[in-house]
Amino acid sequence: MFISTVTANSGAMLLLRRCRGLTLLSTRRLPVAPAVASCAVRLRSSSAEDQGSYQRAHRPGWRHAVAGLLAGTGAVLAYGLHQHKAEQEAAYPIFSQEEVTSHRSLQDGVWVTYKGGVYDITEFVAMHPGGDKILLAAGGALEPFWALYAVHNQEHVLEMLSEYKVGELNAEDLKKQKTMQTLDPYSSDPERHPVLRINNLKPFNAEPPPEILSDSFITPSAFFFKRNHLPVPQVDPATYLLQVEGLPGGLLTLSLEELKTRFPKHTVTATLQCAGNRRSEMNAVKQVKGLNWGIAAISNATWSGARLRDVLLAAGYGPDVARRAGHVQFEGLDKDVTGTTYGASIPLNKAVSEEGDVLLAYEMNGADLPADHGYPVRVVVPGVVGARNVKWLGKIIVSADESSSHWQQNDYKGFSPGTDWDTVNFKSAPAIQELPVQSAITAPADGAVVDRSSEELTVKGYAWSGGGREVVRVDVSLDGGKTWQVAQIRSSEKGQAPEGTPPTGRAWAWKLWEITAPLPPGAKELKIVCKAVDNSYNMQPDTVAPIWNLRGVLSNAWHRVNVKIREDEREE
Amino acid sequence: MFISTVTANSGAMLLLRRCRGLTLLSTRRLPVAPAVASCAVRLRSSSAEDQGSYQRAHRPGWRHAVAGLLAGTGAVLAYGLHQHKAEQEAAYPIFSQEEVTSHRSLQDGVWVTYKGGVYDITEFVAMHPGGDKILLAAGGALEPFWALYAVHNQEHVLEMLSEYKVGELNAEDLKKQKTMQTLDPYSSDPERHPVLRINNLKPFNAEPPPEILSDSFITPSAFFFKRNHLPVPQVDPATYLLQVEGLPGGLLTLSLEELKTRFPKHTVTATLQCAGNRRSEMNAVKQVKGLNWGIAAISNATWSGARLRDVLLAAGYGPDVARRAGHVQFEGLDKDVTGTTYGASIPLNKAVSEEGDVLLAYEMNGADLPADHGYPVRVVVPGVVGARNVKWLGKIIVSADESSSHWQQNDYKGFSPGTDWDTVNFKSAPAIQELPVQSAITAPADGAVVDRSSEELTVKGYAWSGGGREVVRVDVSLDGGKTWQVAQIRSSEKGQAPEGTPPTGRAWAWKLWEITAPLPPGAKELKIVCKAVDNSYNMQPDTVAPIWNLRGVLSNAWHRVNVKIREDEREE
After folding, report:
1. Of A72-81, A202-211, B82-91, which range is least confident?
2. Residue B69: what pLDDT?
3. Do the chains contact at A542 and B539, CB–CB below 8 Å?
4. What's the CA gap between B483 and B486, in Å, rounded?
């Protein structure tokens, strides 16, 4: 049944995905079952007569495409595309927007428009690398989605699309579309500090330079790493309403003012880390899918707000609920053009525990939340991966189920290094919640040169662990891991008195560490390594390859920095 | 101030310890302050006249000894000892037991007897590798202590002792001593299953063969690893009383019957692991101090008993207590000849949490606790190192402080690989509570030979993590870690339906895993490796050396087993 391929087209490969993948992506508006069923049927019935219509005659050789898909590469697809290019005609029929809109399902065909062209992408749905999210554009324009997901702005994507052209949109409807599309969903994103290193502009993803990161125990909000999944929503604090669902008290709705006044204000110093922090080190081993974060997708701030626990109790939470529910879901107010919001969930026991310290935060570092960090209200889930700390919080749902969002179900999970996109089963791994022990060297930078005359070297960095586990030691090596010294660690701003030891299991904030060591005599290069130990005595793994995973998350191997020693010229 | 040494005598080195170490060892009977003060004074005033007496003239050259001590080696000490040997006379004065007993402090001198000889070991106290525990024998006989701590039964120990001889015990008192000493404190220890591999007989420490370990999800009690620190106490269930101290209700005393009837019986399946499990792998890197455990100092059982939380609530525990107290201490009924009991403590929040599942267990695998496992009552602290699961429980103390016991303060802690016995500061590391993620291969055994004709190989093992973190994946490699496959894991007896997923943070039981893989064509040897991942996505470190520590605890690097493939003779 499987057809092997001879050559591989990497562009097409990137866009391919198994039919199976479809089962994992669902949205509220378009239940996935029909898509899957259709996919299964289409893999078996390859002739056109069963669904013949004008435009189907123009579709590319999708039998070839499916063969390529099954084989896990796009080589056959690419071949098929080129074969059919010659057959295309310049004269296309004209369609109205209404006609296009009537094709918005796999049953009726999936049509989209792009710059005035009308495309029947029914056959492409199963191959879409983003899964059936593509169905959100069914019957409408692609532009708003491509503006959200900039990965589409590549030549080979346009080439693929052109193969599916079936007509042109009439002039009047095209004009209407253009008027609407001049709105860039990211146009109202806030200004950002220019020192940030941008990994992606839309949505905005950026990290501070490492040297700045370890300058302060509390990361100034401007330098705090930013990881948005969608455009920053404009929220009016006067009309903002937080909804709490799924509890015996019925729907609880809270204004910002009520959230601030009805519940005690609670302050927690907590480090947030992106699951993809240090992904670039995994990319160096073998390419992964995701933003190429350096070591600074982690920052530390003080957060103030109402405790989620208190709000849930006010909404009727009690032991009865614990028996039927297991999760607390969060929905952001950030949404794509279809209204799909960012979403995530955390285990109920974390949410309601007195010691969980989960906040509905409205302040960051003593001021209102900045727009990029969730104004006016975000969830702060100390000890848990950044992705569950939902920003611009709109809704809280206590449920028996995890969030059904893409980011909970089909992203932010860890897999074995032997698992690839052909074999991955997202259901087989738990959604990342607590993160493993982590540390990195912020100074010196990799490749730095140190003068022999300076006689000693100061190495600095951060260390943190998930689940409230306190970092109890950081070991530093200058010889690639053969010998180790213990770094000085601190849990406050330099020069300030250290905060007391946090209660067991509630060490939410990172530690900064530093060690000054004499330059080893005769050494021409230092292979600096750091590794942290937390109070469960978990340690970082030695190397990256054995923890490599296809999404490049959970990158917490020893951090390594190489430094050259320049001999003093007078001595040479 | 520090004197360097030229050569090292390894026997003496082993027995040496910094004066500083003394500050960390204290017992209720003999507060440590005088010992430390004395030590400090003696390092400065080196002449004998200030405390002159008959026997002091016989003491060995302790100025040399102290110099050696300061330099961290025994070389100078050894030199001093030999120099003074010649000066000793055969004719010793005769002392009564009463005279010996009057020397039981550093102020009055510390005398001990051994086989009829009288020894003034005042100067040796600071050098005793077991710390000031040696003071427990002050004024009495060494034999009962040496019977407890078999490490003393070595020739060089007797040689060192002989240097401190100051007299002989009179015949009558010697006779009395001998009568008392015929009682072996271990004589009432229970029978054990002969298949156990004994690491130490007195106290009894043994583990099952690995192949037996992975045969059953619930380890039969007879095969469950045994780790005793002292003789097994004989406890009469009819007169057994458990004391609970430190709570507003005052002292609560519970008989076994009351414990069983006043509180609901709660059953937990929990894995216990010794901190020293897999220590032999650390020993292979560099010698550590401790029993040479293989991979089977870990087992899984069902435990039933009263919840500690319920008992503490009955004794008056409430939120007020949480504000002043931080620890729950446990004292065993197992004791040494001085009455010092085994002791340990756990954080209060683990003890009182509804989700902590800490038990005062009176049943193991559905029957009364066996004598070796704490009959009639032991603590079971799921997710926490075996050493805190105090057996033969006598007393529970809610306190602001950790247990002051040797095992809590000066043992069962982790250190950097660069830390040795000269530099270790036990106060710098937290007492081990939650253990890190762990896994090991139980079959095949290292060095096994597999026939090529068998075509495939089944690899089996266990995996577990501390703190209730569930093992979510076990990766197995047959090529030393280059490529990985995912093992099948199970959480029940083979053939039985798997238990449901435990609630988040309450995965107390291990998982057994198994993978059957074809023998790689052409391979002559398989380098089998396993590593586990828990739901905080912590992973085991790759190698042993970077996590090596002087006590050989927390040995959780990838487990490696090498297997040879024998080619089928017909094919050769």
Report:
1. A72-81
2. 33
3. no
4. 10
pLDDT at B367 over 50: yes
**Any idea which of A18-32, A230-244, A285-299, A407-421 has the lowest mean pLDDT?**
A18-32
Tell whether the model's pLDDT for residue B18 goes beyond 70. no
| β-sheet bridge partners, residue B461 | B441, B513
What is the ipTM, given to two decimal places?
A: 0.76
Identify whether B128 is a catalytic site residue.
yes
d(CA B84, CA B57): 11
With helix as H, strand as E and coil as C, how does A389-420 read?
Answer: CCCCEEEEEEECCCCCCHHHHCCCECCCCCCC
A138 CB within 8 Å of a chain B CB: no
Edge-to-edge strand order for the sheet containing A241-245? Answer: A252-255, A241-245, A393-399, A327-335, A341-347
- CB neighbourhood size of B553 (10 A): 28
| A503 Cβ under 8 Å from any chain B Cβ | yes
- State the pLDDT at residue A57: 35
Let me know: does A16 contact A68? Beta carbons within 8 Å.
yes
- Which residue pairs from B412-416 have beta carbons closer than 8 angstroms and sit at least 24 positions apart in sequence? B412/B275, B412/B385, B412/B387, B412/B551, B412/B553, B413/B551, B413/B553, B414/A473, B414/A533, B414/A537, B414/B549, B414/B551, B414/B553, B414/B554, B415/B549, B415/B550, B415/B551, B416/A473, B416/A475, B416/A484, B416/A485, B416/A486, B416/B549
Condensed to tens digits (0 to 9), the pLDDT of residues B430-488 reads 999 999 999 999 999 999 999 999 999 999 999 999 999 999 999 999 999 999 999 99
Distance CA A118, CA A479 (A): 62
Which of B504, B541, B554 lies nearest to residue A541, judging by beta carbons?
B541
Contact yes or no for A542 and B546 at CB 8 A = yes
Which of B501, B486, B374 is CA-nearest to residue B439? B486
Segment A381-401 mean pLDDT: 98
Q: Collect all residues of chain B within an 8 Å Cβ-Cβ radius of residue A328.
A: none
**Whether the predicted pLDDT of B352 surpasses 50:** yes
| DSSP secondary structure letters along A255-283 | EHHHHHHHS--EEEEEEEE-TTTTHHHHH
The residue of chain B nearest to residue A466, with distances taken between CA atoms, is: B536
pLDDT band at A17 (very low <50, low <70, confident <90, very high): very low
Q: Does B401 contact chain A (CB < 8 Å)?
A: no
Under an 8 A CB cutoff, do A486 and B429 touch?
no
Q: H or E element: which one contains B328?
A: strand B327-335
Residue whose token pair is 């320049």? A566
Residues A555, A279 contacting (CB under 8 angstroms) = yes
Q: What is the mean pLDDT of residues B121-149?
A: 82
Residue B559 appears among annotated catalytic residues? no
Tell me the pLDDT tens digit for each residue of B546-556: 999 999 999 99
Rounded to whole angstroms, the Cα distance separating B446 from B94 reads 58
Kindly determine whether residue B481 and residue A547, on different chains, have CB atoms separated by under 8 Å: no
* Count of C-beta atoms within a 10 Å radius of residue B525: 13
Examine the pLDDT at A67 and tell me if it is beyond 60.
no
Question: Residue A59: what pLDDT?
Answer: 39
Q: Nearest Cα to B98, choosing from B137, B134, B57, B140?
A: B140
Contact A393, A360 (CB under 8 A): yes
The partner residue sitting opposite B504, judged by closest CB among A347, A486, A503, is A347
Chain A, window 409-468: residues with a beta carbon less than 8 angstroms from a chain B beta carbon: 414, 416-419, 429-430, 432-437, 466-467
